[in-house]
Amino acid sequence: MPQLNPAPWLFIMSISWLTFSLILQPKILSFMSTNQPINKTTTLTKPLSWIWPWT
Length: 55
Prior knowledge:
This protein is mainly α. It has 1 helix and no strands. 42% of the residues lie in helices and 0% in strands.
């Protein structure tokens, strides 16, 4: 059964994982996000009650 032989894909997976974690990830994390999060105060508004015409 060829899928049980780890030789062809284990090396490729480990090299790609190392490439991502050692080379690409620091470059991606160095970018600053364009929208910095801000502290926004939440204002709770009381919902208006309905005005029923028959009352």
